[in-house]
Amino acid sequence: MQTRNKLFDDLSELMTNAMGVAQGAKDEADTAMKSFMDRWVSEKNLVGREEFEVTQLMVQKVLEENEELKSRIDLLEKKLKKKI
Questions:
Q1: Which segments of the chain are extended strands (E)?
Q2: Which of 5, 21, 26, 51 could form a disulfide with 47 if both were Cys (CB 3.0 to 4.6 A apart)?
């Protein structure tokens, strides 16, 4: 009976070690893939999501300011036409 427990203990230890190795390989593969993708994005001059969202907000603000300035110019032109 003691031999059987030893066999199960050894098998359990082997499986635990195999899971540790598999987890380590997964972590290493994830790191390598992230590094590859970061390098690829950098080489292609692509922007990240955060940069894109900031730029999008800036463009929206500029468009709103442009509309406001256009309205002010139209108003000033109307006033100028009335004076002439």
A1: none
A2: 51
